[in-house]
TrEMBL record:
Highest rank taxon of the organism: Eukaryota
InterPro entries according to UniProt: Methyltransf_25 (IPR041698), SAM-dependent_MTases_sf (IPR029063)
Domain Methyltransferase: 70-161
Name of this chain's protein: Methyltransferase domain-containing protein
Family matches, as Gene3D superfamilies: Vaccinia Virus protein VP39
UniProt cross-references to PANTHER family, sorted A to Z: METHYLTRANSFERASE, METHYLTRANSFERASE-LIKE PROTEIN 27
Pfam families registered for this protein in UniProt: Methyltransf_25 (PF13649)
Amino acid sequence: MEEHTRTFTDVKNAILSAHENSGPRDKMRFYDKWAEQYEEDVALLDYRAPSLATECIASHVQGDRDSAKVLDVACGTGLVSMKLKEKGFQHFSGLDGSEVMLDLSRKTGLYQELWKCLLGLEPLPVQAEAYEVVVIVGALSVGQVPVPVIEEMWRATKPGGHICMTTRANPDNLKYKAELELALDSMVSEGRMIRVAVSEVEEWEKAVQEHETGYIPGAVYLYRKAMALHK
Ligand SMILES: C[S@@+](CC[C@H](N)C(=O)[O-])C[C@H]1O[C@@H](n2cnc3c(N)ncnc32)[C@H](O)[C@@H]1O
Protein backbone atom coordinates (compact mmCIF):
# COMPACT_ATOMS: atom_id res chain seq x y z
CA MET A 1 0.00 0.00 0.00
CA GLU A 2 1.19 3.52 -0.80
CA GLU A 3 2.53 5.38 2.25
CA HIS A 4 1.26 8.88 3.05
CA THR A 5 3.91 10.76 4.94
CA ARG A 6 3.14 14.44 4.31
CA THR A 7 1.71 16.58 7.10
CA PHE A 8 -0.32 19.77 6.91
CA THR A 9 2.80 21.67 8.04
CA ASP A 10 4.71 20.30 5.03
CA VAL A 11 1.91 21.54 2.77
CA LYS A 12 1.91 24.98 4.39
CA ASN A 13 5.67 25.26 4.00
CA ALA A 14 5.52 24.16 0.37
CA ILE A 15 2.83 26.71 -0.53
CA LEU A 16 4.38 29.54 1.45
CA SER A 17 7.71 28.91 -0.29
CA ALA A 18 5.97 29.80 -3.58
CA HIS A 19 5.43 33.31 -2.24
CA GLU A 20 9.20 33.77 -2.26
CA ASN A 21 9.20 33.32 -6.05
CA SER A 22 9.29 36.55 -7.97
CA GLY A 23 8.25 35.91 -11.57
CA PRO A 24 6.31 33.40 -13.72
CA ARG A 25 9.40 31.32 -14.55
CA ASP A 26 10.23 31.03 -10.83
CA LYS A 27 6.61 29.99 -10.24
CA MET A 28 6.95 27.21 -12.83
CA ARG A 29 10.14 26.00 -11.11
CA PHE A 30 8.12 25.90 -7.86
CA TYR A 31 5.39 23.80 -9.54
CA ASP A 32 7.99 21.52 -11.17
CA LYS A 33 9.37 20.83 -7.69
CA TRP A 34 5.95 20.46 -6.06
CA ALA A 35 4.33 18.30 -8.77
CA GLU A 36 5.11 14.85 -7.35
CA GLN A 37 3.59 15.79 -3.97
CA TYR A 38 0.81 17.96 -5.40
CA GLU A 39 -2.13 15.54 -5.23
CA GLU A 40 -1.28 14.27 -1.76
CA ASP A 41 -0.83 17.85 -0.53
CA VAL A 42 -4.04 19.27 -2.01
CA ALA A 43 -5.95 16.39 -0.41
CA LEU A 44 -4.54 17.48 2.99
CA LEU A 45 -5.53 21.05 2.10
CA ASP A 46 -9.10 19.89 1.38
CA TYR A 47 -8.75 21.68 -1.99
CA ARG A 48 -12.29 21.50 -3.36
CA ALA A 49 -11.97 23.69 -6.45
CA PRO A 50 -11.82 20.86 -9.06
CA SER A 51 -15.00 19.26 -7.63
CA LEU A 52 -16.82 22.58 -7.26
CA ALA A 53 -16.00 23.65 -10.84
CA THR A 54 -17.02 20.22 -12.15
CA GLU A 55 -20.35 20.32 -10.29
CA CYS A 56 -21.01 23.78 -11.69
CA ILE A 57 -20.25 22.67 -15.27
CA ALA A 58 -22.22 19.43 -14.93
CA SER A 59 -25.31 21.18 -13.59
CA HIS A 60 -25.46 23.96 -16.22
CA VAL A 61 -23.88 22.73 -19.45
CA GLN A 62 -26.36 21.06 -21.76
CA GLY A 63 -25.51 19.08 -24.88
CA ASP A 64 -23.74 15.90 -25.81
CA ARG A 65 -20.92 15.22 -23.34
CA ASP A 66 -19.55 12.35 -25.45
CA SER A 67 -18.59 14.68 -28.27
CA ALA A 68 -17.88 17.92 -26.35
CA LYS A 69 -14.26 19.11 -26.49
CA VAL A 70 -12.88 20.38 -23.18
CA LEU A 71 -9.80 22.61 -22.84
CA ASP A 72 -8.27 22.27 -19.35
CA VAL A 73 -6.14 25.40 -18.91
CA ALA A 74 -3.38 25.14 -16.25
CA CYS A 75 -4.32 21.46 -15.99
CA GLY A 76 -1.67 20.57 -13.39
CA THR A 77 -1.75 16.83 -12.74
CA GLY A 78 -5.20 16.44 -14.38
CA LEU A 79 -7.57 16.63 -11.39
CA VAL A 80 -10.21 18.71 -13.20
CA SER A 81 -10.40 16.54 -16.32
CA MET A 82 -10.51 13.46 -14.11
CA LYS A 83 -13.59 14.86 -12.32
CA LEU A 84 -15.20 15.91 -15.62
CA LYS A 85 -14.67 12.43 -17.01
CA GLU A 86 -16.67 11.06 -14.08
CA LYS A 87 -19.51 13.32 -15.32
CA GLY A 88 -19.38 11.89 -18.82
CA PHE A 89 -17.01 14.23 -20.68
CA GLN A 90 -14.60 12.32 -22.91
CA HIS A 91 -12.40 14.65 -24.97
CA PHE A 92 -9.73 16.62 -23.14
CA SER A 93 -6.89 18.87 -24.21
CA GLY A 94 -4.68 20.42 -21.57
CA LEU A 95 -1.94 22.94 -21.11
CA ASP A 96 0.29 24.07 -18.30
CA GLY A 97 3.54 25.97 -17.81
CA SER A 98 5.16 23.25 -15.70
CA GLU A 99 6.88 20.43 -17.57
CA VAL A 100 6.67 18.08 -14.57
CA MET A 101 2.94 18.77 -14.08
CA LEU A 102 2.48 18.00 -17.79
CA ASP A 103 4.40 14.72 -17.45
CA LEU A 104 2.03 13.68 -14.66
CA SER A 105 -1.09 14.68 -16.58
CA ARG A 106 0.25 12.78 -19.62
CA LYS A 107 0.48 9.63 -17.46
CA THR A 108 -3.26 9.83 -16.66
CA GLY A 109 -4.03 8.98 -20.29
CA LEU A 110 -6.92 11.46 -20.14
CA TYR A 111 -5.69 14.00 -22.65
CA GLN A 112 -5.68 13.81 -26.44
CA GLU A 113 -3.31 16.78 -26.58
CA LEU A 114 -1.10 18.53 -24.05
CA TRP A 115 0.90 21.70 -24.55
CA LYS A 116 3.49 23.51 -22.49
CA CYS A 117 2.54 27.18 -22.35
CA LEU A 118 3.50 29.99 -19.99
CA LEU A 119 0.22 31.87 -19.86
CA GLY A 120 0.55 35.62 -19.93
CA LEU A 121 3.90 35.39 -21.73
CA GLU A 122 2.96 32.95 -24.52
CA PRO A 123 -0.33 32.82 -26.45
CA LEU A 124 -2.72 29.89 -25.97
CA PRO A 125 -1.50 27.35 -28.56
CA VAL A 126 -5.02 26.35 -29.58
CA GLN A 127 -7.41 26.95 -32.46
CA ALA A 128 -10.01 29.69 -32.13
CA GLU A 129 -13.60 28.61 -31.37
CA ALA A 130 -12.66 24.95 -31.00
CA TYR A 131 -13.94 23.99 -27.51
CA GLU A 132 -17.39 23.53 -25.99
CA VAL A 133 -15.93 23.92 -22.50
CA VAL A 134 -12.85 25.89 -21.44
CA VAL A 135 -11.96 25.54 -17.77
CA ILE A 136 -9.29 27.02 -15.52
CA VAL A 137 -9.13 25.95 -11.88
CA GLY A 138 -6.69 27.00 -9.17
CA ALA A 139 -4.61 29.18 -11.45
CA LEU A 140 -6.42 32.52 -11.78
CA SER A 141 -4.88 34.31 -8.80
CA VAL A 142 -2.25 36.84 -7.92
CA GLY A 143 1.22 35.76 -9.09
CA GLN A 144 -0.15 33.04 -11.37
CA VAL A 145 -2.20 33.51 -14.55
CA PRO A 146 -2.84 37.18 -15.42
CA VAL A 147 -6.47 38.28 -15.90
CA PRO A 148 -6.15 39.16 -19.66
CA VAL A 149 -5.67 35.43 -20.39
CA ILE A 150 -9.47 35.12 -20.11
CA GLU A 151 -9.65 36.95 -23.47
CA GLU A 152 -7.63 34.11 -25.03
CA MET A 153 -9.85 31.56 -23.33
CA TRP A 154 -12.88 33.36 -24.78
CA ARG A 155 -11.33 33.11 -28.28
CA ALA A 156 -10.76 29.36 -27.83
CA THR A 157 -14.42 28.78 -26.88
CA LYS A 158 -17.05 27.87 -29.49
CA PRO A 159 -19.93 30.35 -29.75
CA GLY A 160 -22.51 29.04 -27.27
CA GLY A 161 -19.77 27.20 -25.36
CA HIS A 162 -18.91 27.69 -21.69
CA ILE A 163 -15.97 29.11 -19.73
CA CYS A 164 -15.58 28.03 -16.11
CA MET A 165 -13.13 29.79 -13.81
CA THR A 166 -12.24 29.77 -10.12
CA THR A 167 -10.39 32.15 -7.87
CA ARG A 168 -9.58 32.55 -4.18
CA ALA A 169 -11.34 35.18 -2.05
CA ASN A 170 -8.87 35.55 0.82
CA PRO A 171 -7.35 38.99 1.51
CA ASP A 172 -4.18 38.64 -0.58
CA ASN A 173 -6.23 37.82 -3.69
CA LEU A 174 -9.09 40.32 -3.36
CA LYS A 175 -7.53 42.91 -5.70
CA TYR A 176 -6.99 40.22 -8.35
CA LYS A 177 -10.56 38.91 -7.85
CA ALA A 178 -11.98 42.42 -8.33
CA GLU A 179 -9.91 42.83 -11.52
CA LEU A 180 -11.18 39.47 -12.82
CA GLU A 181 -14.81 40.39 -12.11
CA LEU A 182 -14.39 43.79 -13.78
CA ALA A 183 -13.02 42.11 -16.92
CA LEU A 184 -15.89 39.59 -16.93
CA ASP A 185 -18.47 42.37 -16.44
CA SER A 186 -17.11 44.30 -19.40
CA MET A 187 -17.21 41.19 -21.63
CA VAL A 188 -20.87 40.82 -20.63
CA SER A 189 -21.68 44.47 -21.31
CA GLU A 190 -19.97 44.20 -24.72
CA GLY A 191 -22.38 41.37 -25.55
CA ARG A 192 -19.60 38.77 -25.83
CA MET A 193 -20.55 36.65 -22.79
CA ILE A 194 -23.56 35.73 -20.71
CA ARG A 195 -23.21 35.16 -16.98
CA VAL A 196 -24.61 31.70 -16.19
CA ALA A 197 -23.70 31.10 -12.53
CA VAL A 198 -21.42 32.60 -9.93
CA SER A 199 -21.05 31.01 -6.53
CA GLU A 200 -19.11 32.32 -3.59
CA VAL A 201 -17.95 29.42 -1.42
CA GLU A 202 -17.02 29.91 2.25
CA GLU A 203 -15.04 26.70 2.72
CA TRP A 204 -12.83 26.72 -0.37
CA GLU A 205 -9.67 25.19 1.04
CA LYS A 206 -7.76 25.20 4.32
CA ALA A 207 -5.91 28.42 5.13
CA VAL A 208 -2.12 28.26 5.04
CA GLN A 209 -1.05 31.84 5.73
CA GLU A 210 0.09 32.89 9.21
CA HIS A 211 -2.74 35.40 9.83
CA GLU A 212 -5.48 33.05 8.54
CA THR A 213 -7.25 30.18 10.26
CA GLY A 214 -9.82 27.56 9.29
CA TYR A 215 -10.86 27.74 5.65
CA ILE A 216 -10.41 30.53 3.11
CA PRO A 217 -13.28 31.46 0.74
CA GLY A 218 -13.28 31.23 -3.05
CA ALA A 219 -15.55 31.56 -6.06
CA VAL A 220 -16.63 29.61 -9.14
CA TYR A 221 -17.71 31.49 -12.29
CA LEU A 222 -19.52 30.02 -15.29
CA TYR A 223 -20.09 32.11 -18.42
CA ARG A 224 -21.44 31.28 -21.87
CA LYS A 225 -19.91 32.73 -25.01
CA ALA A 226 -22.51 34.63 -27.02
CA MET A 227 -23.52 33.08 -30.36
CA ALA A 228 -22.96 36.38 -32.15
CA LEU A 229 -22.38 39.97 -31.21
CA HIS A 230 -25.62 41.95 -30.91
CA LYS A 231 -24.52 45.56 -31.14
C1 LIG B 1 -2.95 25.04 -8.10
S1 LIG B 1 -2.46 24.27 -9.58
C2 LIG B 1 -4.04 23.82 -10.29
C3 LIG B 1 -3.92 22.64 -11.20
C4 LIG B 1 -5.25 22.01 -11.59
N1 LIG B 1 -6.01 22.92 -12.43
C5 LIG B 1 -6.02 21.64 -10.34
O1 LIG B 1 -7.03 22.29 -10.04
O2 LIG B 1 -5.57 20.71 -9.66
C6 LIG B 1 -2.00 25.62 -10.62
C7 LIG B 1 -1.45 25.19 -11.97
O3 LIG B 1 -1.34 26.34 -12.77
C8 LIG B 1 -0.11 26.31 -13.46
N2 LIG B 1 0.24 27.71 -13.72
C9 LIG B 1 0.33 28.73 -12.84
N3 LIG B 1 0.65 29.87 -13.47
C10 LIG B 1 0.78 29.56 -14.77
C11 LIG B 1 1.11 30.30 -15.95
N4 LIG B 1 1.36 31.62 -15.91
N5 LIG B 1 1.16 29.65 -17.13
C12 LIG B 1 0.89 28.31 -17.20
N6 LIG B 1 0.58 27.55 -16.14
C13 LIG B 1 0.52 28.17 -14.94
C14 LIG B 1 0.85 25.60 -12.53
O4 LIG B 1 1.93 25.03 -13.22
C15 LIG B 1 -0.06 24.56 -11.89
O5 LIG B 1 -0.04 23.35 -12.60
